[in-house]
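ok trying again, last paste got cut off:
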Amino acid sequence: MPCENLSTRILQLRKENNLKQSELGEAVGLSLYAISDIERGRRTTTTEKIIEIANYFNVTTDYLLGLSNMRERKQHDTPGTAQ
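nice, full thing came through this time. structure:
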């Protein structure tokens, strides 16, 4: 279930970065309570917030959603860059 992967991975990334729920929430425009509910698997969030969280931790959205175990984005994954 994607919600379980999302919640587990956000919690793991937050703890790895020694962040409080309130600090992550402030960084991505969510409340402490929203972050808490997401980490507990009680709710999910919008696509836009998932992208913001992925950008904040410099991981892919696929990683956050449990679709991939590849954490880091490649340089050429940035939209608008020439190859």
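cool. The chain has a mean pLDDT of 87. The CA atoms of residues 13 and 57 lie 7 Å apart.
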